């Protein structure tokens, strides 16, 4: 019997891409994906697309309706027994990733949902690995060097997303004493480094949304000094690294920063993005405090298609040490592309799909 994989977070972007790569290169015996009932139709379509392109038998992939916020993930006794008999690898990606998420929703999904998944994986007798998707930004407002083994340093947080992902990782670390666990902490994920493909224009894409709206201006200023490092990583690096870490015994009980090993300052990223997309360079500096004030007005946020919370990442001077990651991945030649080389691909994909409303977040 080969490996049997269970995923939450499908048909989300990273979960879908992980499954596509897993099926192509890791020959799974069986795949189970948990989906919320309202997402089932979309999940079936995505499953059919992946199975068709990878020549993977649809019978070897089962979509199970469930809910991570419910006891036993809302599975029936029959489903619980079936999964307990076979599952070897669990990838927990289901979460609310929106920086502007209300606190009660973030706590219900990110914290309580993860605790329910933790309880369930603790009962799987054949489990070889529990892969939990955290975020580098569990560091909150900490500045300076952040190490992979660190978590609770009494930090505060920039938003409810960061805080609830921190609390969820605390819970995962508690079960890691008894469950073979690997914690993945990505930086801010952008599209595929070769195709540019991404599901949503959020995160760094807010910058492109803004440039698109303001392109009529003769001059666009920098937003603050932008001295903080920007930590942006293409999704294909996240996928390749995660799947290797999920299968090597070296990664059991460890946490990995899948961050940019050679990050640029936000000021330089802003300039490179503007030059690539608009063919012009920023001039002058608009104080970040003034920008934040302006973004307090919902009509402006909605027009620019930018979340106010994203501005915090222009000034939080965190440096993410990824020594553990680099040492482990170097053995098989997995490296993160220089972000300068990713920007043209991002800009091209954005330009081609910028009018696709399904790729834009709803800004409140």
From TrEMBL:
Q: Which SUPFAM superfamilies did the record assign?
A: NAD(P)-binding Rossmann-fold domains
Mind telling me what this protein is named?
A: Male sterility protein
Which is one GO molecular function term here? alcohol-forming very long-chain fatty acyl-CoA reductase activity
What InterPro entries does its record include? FAR, FAR_NAD-bd, NAD(P)-bd_dom_sf
Naturally occurring in which organism (per UniProt): Anoxybacillus suryakundensis
CDD domains tied to this protein = MupV_like_SDR_e (cd05263)
| Record domain Thioester reductase (TE): where | 8-241
